[in-house]
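#structure-requests
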Amino acid sequence: MKEAVILLSGGMDSATLIGYCLENEIQPHCLNINYGQKHQREIDSAKSIAKFYDFPFTSLDLSIIRGLLSGSALTDDIDVPEGYYKHETMKSTVVPNRNAILLSIGAGYAISLKADYIMIGAHGGDHDIYPDCRREFLEPLNDAFREGNYHKVNIRAPFLYDTKSNIVQRGIKYNIPYELTWTCYNGGKKACGKCGSCIERLEAFKNNGIEDPLEYEK
């Protein structure tokens, strides 16, 4: 059986990666990285998801780098924009070089395990806003990892061209416990239902004809 390190953020996309692994007979090793994000609730979600499946789980506290990754609404004292995903508003949620940092750590872990893949839940809806969720970024980084190490690990992003609705459709088939996931960019006890991330999630469930099991403020 092949093995993979999953960057398990606690969100819907990375949780659905677990179902993808099970369908494709890949053994997941779940890795969650705290980079100082304000929505710390997703870290607890990642732990709950890994516990639900009884998969190996590692949590790494890198919150010390928060001060270096400035200028993002996810790490700084900047309001998270509300409303639909639009480039000019949601651009404020970009964290500098985030996926390069997370994937580098995940790749090192995967290489140490002699695993086959490092997996990330980047999807088609991310492309316009987040440059580090695009094929043009992931493919050269994958080449660099393979050239720079004796053990050849590959980046896998199986949802790279899926919409959020497509991912929920997959997750329904995989029986993913979406009630354990966290999507909201705000750090409240309940999801705000107003930020771009919440709206995209709510629409994905609506498009699949089912109710989102997450509790919202309104």
